[in-house]
Amino acid sequence: MTVDTAPAAGRTPEGPRPGLRERKKLRTRDALLQSALGLFTERGYEETTVDDIVEAAEVSQRTFFRYFASKEEAAFFPARLSEAHFVESVRRRPAGEAPLDTLRRALSASWDGIEETVGQVVPLDLHLRFYRTVESTPALLAAHLRRATELEEEIARIIAAREGLDPDTDPRPRVVVAVFGAVLRAAERVWSARDDAGLAELRDLTTSHLDRVETALTGAWHTSPAAGGR
User: Fold this and answer.
1) What is the SS3 assignment for the chain?
2) For 109-119, how does the pLDDT look when each residue is reduced to its tens digit (9 = 90+)?
3) In whole angstroms, how far apart are CA 212 and each of 107, 218, 221?
């Protein structure tokens, strides 16, 4: 069993300052995360063992497993913090807002707060570099897509509840979330291929992709009159 490493563990501005013992636990967890992500990006995920991580963090293997059940759990821990912030942002959007607008504005809020959420455990640039490693690592990519599917289902149910719908009989919540997720994925793939691109570039790419959703789904794509007549 792993220890509770939720973002509410004394790290939010609203919460009470943790005691000395808890601060030591958080420092150990963060050292393990930074060692893990650093090694994953430098050596490769498959080539990095738990022994490598604990050696870099100067702790025991037993300590690692008190915090994380596996390498995969450690790898995606910072992302889980960001996802939790996104989910909460969706929940807080005002009633009556169009679902796609809700998703876009919640995503923007999540990006605005990413330094506070992800940066509390690992440097943001390390987190972004790790996501490039995900694209080139089959095991990580499979886990990433699985987790994205689970997140989409959670968000779809939140959207359905906001709209007073049953997602098991009305497909619209899952459809809009699936389209939104596919756009994010498309932007992410383009961004990950640009070695020097940072968060600002990812935001710009995603915004540009989202701006084209309606046209892409309902408009004609042909750019020449001749092509349109074929």
Assistant:
1) CCCCCCCCCCCCCCCCCCCHHHHHHHHHHHHHHHHHHHHHHHCCCCCCCHHHHHHHHCCCHHHHHHHCCCHHHHHCHHHHHHHHHHHHHHHHCCCCCCHHHHHHHHHHHHHHCHHHHCCCCCCHHHHHHHHHHHHCCHHHHHHHHHHHHHHHHHHHHHHHHHHCCCCCCCCHHHHHHHHHHHHHHHHHHHHHCCCCCCHHHHHHHHHHHHHCHHHHHHCCCCCCHHHHCC
2) 999 999 889 99
3) 17, 10, 11
Closest CA to 152 of 133, 126, 173: 173
How much is the pTM? Answer: 0.82
Whether residue 154 contacts residue 87, with contact meaning beta carbons closer than 8 Å, is answered with yes
Tokens of residue 160, six digits: 């359905």
**How far apart are alpha carbons 70 and 56 in whole angstroms?**
16
CA atoms within 13 A on the CB side of 74: 28
Distances (CA, A) of 204 to 88, 208, 215, 216: 23, 6, 18, 18
Sign of dihedral through CA atoms 92, 93, 96, 100?
Answer: negative
pLDDT, tens digit, 9 for 90 and up, residues 188-221:
888 888 877 788 888 898 999 998 887 887 777 7
